[in-house]
Design a protein that fits this description.
With 418 residues, this protein is α+β, with helices and mostly antiparallel strands. The protein contains two helices and 25 strands. A four-stranded antiparallel beta sheet has the order 2-22-21-20, with no helix packed on it. It is elongated and about 125 Å long. The model is unreliable at 2-12, 59-94, 301-323 and 373-418 (pLDDT under 50). It holds the Pfam family NHL. Keywords: Membrane, Repeat, Transmembrane, Transmembrane helix.
């Protein structure tokens, strides 16, 4: 009986002990869980605060840190040509630089009509094989001078001064129609434009009559443009046209935006804009396609001999207002670094510069020794069809100057010489 009581008391005591331990364990478990949640909450708060701070700090650092890429572009802008103008002073020529001492590659033996002589040459054209066509004005002929040759060959005219089909009278300009493999000649004294085949050199054809042709050029469609100094206009002629279409001037002599005063050399770009050397107004005009008025692009400061002025210009520009002497500039003379009434100018396929040194009766070659790269990383490409036919006689300085040598998007040299 006592044993049962003792066992019963033991069981009761054990049960009571367990019942008192359970709340204690639950309380401890709750405290642990609560502590764990507090730790997790603190970690979340720390992360929420820390991550944005790191991001902001990183962005601030990137903004304040100089960009290596930007620095490279800035450095290259001093030697590269870009489409957008820059206010920085360029330390190198925009497109190229030519040697100051010229090499005589045609003529240079005084005025005369021998095969190694020229007489007041005017226009010049260089084909892809570096063969030079020269408008030998006072010999009334067109002379072809092959590369590295000591003598020229008459390819048009040369039969005395006259108005017969096989004669020329003071030719001023010659270009090549590549599609027809023919020369187009501005026969100034006969007031006509004629075409001579480069193959047979016979049966020349009169394309336009009764026109005081100062200059002729063709666009990429083969349409011909002629400046007429008597009618003070430039007309475009398509094959078969009888009258042509006025594309510049034609409103009498004057200085207004729709007028010209003795239009000289002309150039047509890829967008069919016409650049006209407005000689007596001392300016270069640009007429966009179908425009009724032109835009002055050079020579805004009246006639003069400053680098931002033009004297009887017959060239064109799209660019800067001040020039850089690229040939001559050492007084009138016949030394390699001198010129005497420079006229026509052209480039060969390698970018070398050729100048018609009119009163020295010679053609001078100035070798290209520096060629810039474009922003695309390519070198300039000189295209005969996209060059400017640039010429003028500057008796005030006897030098060839360059205004706004520009590399356009087709990597073509566009420039002004006078």
């Amino acid at each position: 009986m006592n044993q049962n009581q003792i066992g019963s008391e033991t069981v009761t005591s054990t049960s009571e002990q367990r019942s008192t331990e359970r709340p204690s364990l639950l309380s401890k478990c709750f405290v642990k869980k609560k502590f764990l949640w507090i730790i997790i909450a603190i970690i979340i708060v720390i992360l929420v605060v820390t991550i944005p701070t790191i991001v902001i700090t990183t962005k601030t650092t990137n903004v304040m840190k100089p960009s290596t890429e930007t620095t490279d572009v800035t450095e290259l802008s001093t030697i590269e040509t870009t489409d957008n103008p820059t206010t920085e002073v360029e330390t190198e020529p925009k497109c190229g630089k030519w040697r100051q001492h010229g090499i005589t590659i045609a003529g240079g033996h005084g005025d005369g009509d021998e095969s190694n002589q020229l007489n007041v040459p005017s226009g010049i054209y260089i084909d892809d094989s570096n063969t030079i066509l020269i408008a030998d004005s006072l010999n009334h002929r067109i002379v072809e001078w092959k590369y590295n040759s000591n003598n020229g060959q008459v390819v048009a005219g040369g039969n005395g001064q006259g108005d017969k089909l096989d004669q020329l009278n003071w030719p001023l300009n010659v270009i090549v129609d590549k599609e027809k493999n023919a020369m187009i000649i501005c026969d100034f004294g006969n007031k006509r434009v004629v075409r001579w085949s480069r193959q047979s050199q016979t049966n020349p054809q009169v394309l336009i009559s009764n026109i005081a042709c100062n200059s002729v050029t063709i666009d990429r469609n083969g349409y011909m443009y002629v400046s007429d100094w008597m009618k003070l206009e430039v007309r475009r002629w398509k094959e078969g046209d009888t009258d042509g279409t006025i594309v510049a001037g034609g409103n009498g002599s004057g200085y207004k935006q729709n007028q010209l005063n003795n239009p000289g050399d002309i150039f047509v770009d890829e967008d069919y804009s016409v650049y006209v050397a407005d000689i007596n107004n001392g300016r270069i005009m640009k007429w966009t396609k179908d425009a009724k008025e032109g835009i002055v692009v050079a020579g805004r400061n009246n006639l003069g001999n400053g680098l931002n002025q033009l004297v009887d210009p017959t060239g064109m520009t799209v660019g800067d207002s001040e020039g850089e002497i690229v040939a001559g500039g050492n007084g009138e003379g016949n030394e390699p670094n001198q010129l005497n009434s420079p006229r026509g100018v052209s480039f060969d396929v390698e970018g070398n510069l050729y100048v018609v040194d009119s009163r020295n009766h010679r053609i001078q070659k100035y070798e290209l020794y520096y060629l810039a790269t474009t922003k695309y990383g390519s070198t300039i490409i000189f295209k005969q069809q996209s060059r400017l036919i640039i010429s003028s006689s500057n008796t005030m300085r006897n030098e060839l100057e360059l205004i706004g040598l520009v590399c356009d998007r087709s990597l073509t040299i566009i420039s002004l010489f006078w």
